[in-house]
Amino acid sequence: MMDKKTEKRLINIIAHQYQPEKSREATDPDAVASRLEGPVAPGQLWEVDDRETHAMAFVCGIPEDDRRLVRVIPVGDYDNGYDSRDLVILPTGSPTGFPLIAYKQFETTIPVRLLSVPYGSFDGQTVATIRSFVGKFDPDDEDGATLSDRLNIQDRFERWHARCGRLPELRNVSEDGFAVSRDLSGYLEALRTVLGLAPAQCLAVRRGTLTLTDEQEKRMEEAGFGNRPRTTGALPRSFVELSEQPRWRFVADEYIDRHGDPSMSSFDADGAARGMLARRAFALAARANGTGDEAVMGMMAKAAGTMTERTDDDR
């Protein structure tokens, strides 16, 4: 049986067999931008940062009851050191092509808005290994990470976990905002096809600044649109949750840098920027085709463009 020191020397040799082509792919700007357009998902490797400190994390999963959060395992560089409680990920199983350490002991939940750079996904075998790994402290392990290194990792992720409690409360949200949007979309289309109103007039009716005549109301009723759909101030839950995706982080940061306190850009504690994004996206919902997360993200992409446009006052 191989002794521990021999095993560690062998791991060290294999760990330093880097795969530069994987590193280039992980950090390629176009590849990173493409990954940002997709959702945060289990098995991915992300950079986590709060504009003061940063680290890497393996994504375990997204809580179904609040998709503004993400379950993660801290990941560090191989050269930081490890002990029997940690899992060594060799270059062949690493998205970056470099050896990594998964600190399974410090698995926790953090706000998904803290994720910044996606480096890619681990292969299925590595994901299974990370999930099933159970480390156990060995007091005789003399070559492990220093206590200060482990405490730094633990402290960093504990601070990020505490920020879950600083997220805006999910108040005044609806579980199915698309139901209202679909009804409203049909009503607006009928204003155009039944009454022949121009798009601007349809929107004016929706906003209540233009009132239909009795004759027009009768024609709408005969067409099956007698009751104008009522909207509430509630945002659909999906809009609120998906506004937290890392894809929109630059939008929130830029918006706050221009309209608020730059020191808040890393977190948007009061939800001002992400709330604005969600509301502007929902305003487009009645005119959009399709439902579900993909449709919501499409509306947010359009809304994001309006939030990053610079006015004369910004120049």
Provide structural commentary.
This protein has 315 residues and is α+β, with helices and mostly antiparallel strands. 42% of the residues lie in helices and 14% in strands. It is built from twelve helices and nine strands. The strands form two sheets. Strands 1, 2, 3, 4, 5, 6 and 7 form a seven-stranded antiparallel sheet that branches. A two-stranded parallel sheet has the order 8-9. A hairpin with a 4-residue loop joins strand 1 and strand 2 (54-61). Helix 6 (177-193) crosses helix 7 and helix 10 packs across helix 11 (272-283).
How is the topology of this model organized?
Layout: H1 4-15, H2 20-27, H3 29-36, E1 44-49, E2 54-61, E3 69-77, E4 87-89, E5 100-102, E6 108-111, E7 115-121, H4 124-132, H5 147-162, E8 173-174, H6 177-193, H7 199-207, H8 214-222, E9 235-236, H9 237-242, H10 249-259, H11 272-283, H12 293-308
